[in-house]
Amino acid sequence: MEIRALQTRDAARCAELEQILFPGDNPWSRDIFAIEFSHPHTFYLGVFDDEGDEEVLVAYAGMAMLGPRDDPEFEIHTIAVDPEHQRRGLGRLLMDQLMHAADSFDGQVFLEVRTDNAPAIAMYEAFGFVNQGVRRNYYQPSGADAYTMSRPSRSEREQ
Ligand SMILES: CC(C)(COP(=O)(O)OP(=O)(O)OC[C@H]1O[C@@H](n2cnc3c(N)ncnc32)[C@H](O)[C@@H]1OP(=O)(O)O)[C@@H](O)C(=O)NCCC(=O)NCCS
């Protein structure tokens, strides 16, 4: 397994996993991923597995930095693990990287998650996220509700 920053050539595989993992929630296309990767204030990482001669992307995550560089906030845009590789610590590995980046800027982190997504909610709570409320019909076309969750900055957690 190798973890590294995602590039345009990885966008098609991300879109393929997205179709599998978020079929009713407007899965992102290859083009959307490519734009996200090229944005100057996003941070996208992938986990690659060696499958024979081939390296296959099996998990990815991305986060955006918002606001002024000396006092930024962060927003997790996506995190996903190939169903065949779930529950092996890859989600945690990617979250560790994202939270390390946010903590290095002492930033608060926000995200949305489907209210029925118990595995993801458990993972976020394990990383110190707390529920801030519900956004009705947030996901389309499914109409599923989302929780907004946030994680205090490092200095806020240490108070
Ligand atoms: C959520 C997701 C990214 C977790 O990735 P993963 O690699 O399977 O998770 P890990 O093995 O690293 O587990 C990390 C923690 O997540 C939680 N978790 C993961 N899967 C879980 C499950 N099926 N049930 C309950 N908790 C679960 C646990 O707290 C776990 O910690 P533990 O192993 O100490 O119990 C993965 O389930 C996934 O890709 N889901 C589909 C996409 C998705 O919903 N993304 C989030 C959108 S907001």
Task: Give an overview in words.
- Residues 1-154 form the N-acetyltransferase domain.
- GO terms for molecular function: N-acetyltransferase activity.
- It comes from Corynebacterium halotolerans YIM 70093 = DSM 44683.
- InterPro entries: AcTrfase_RimI/Ard1 (IPR006464), Acyl_CoA_acyltransferase (IPR016181), GNAT_dom (IPR000182), YpeA/RimI_acetyltransf (IPR050680).
- The mean pLDDT is 96.
- It is globular and about 50 Å long.
- The chain is of the alpha+beta class and 159 residues long.
- Helix 1 (11-21) packs across helix 2 (30-38).
- It has helices spanning 11-21, 30-38, 90-104, 118-126, 154-158, and strands at residues 2-5, 42-51, 54-66, 73-81, 108-114, 130-135, 146-151.
- The chain has one domain (2-158): 3-Layer(aba) Sandwich (Aminopeptidase), CATH 3.40.630.30.
- It binds coenzyme A.
Name a few traits of the molecule.
single chain, 159 residues, alpha+beta, Aminopeptidase, 5 helices, globular, binds coenzyme A
The CATH architecture is 3-Layer(aba) Sandwich
Overall morphology: globular
* Rg computed from alpha carbons, rounded to a whole number of angstroms: 15 Å
Helical fraction: 25-40%
Query: Remind me, CATH topology?
Result: Aminopeptidase
The ordered string of helix (H) and strand (E) elements is EHHEEEHEHEEH
Strand residue content: 25-35%
Uncertain regions spanning at least 5 consecutive residues: none
Number of spatially distinct domains = 1
The biggest sheet amounts to: 7 strands, mixed
Average predicted confidence as pLDDT: 96
Number of strands: 7
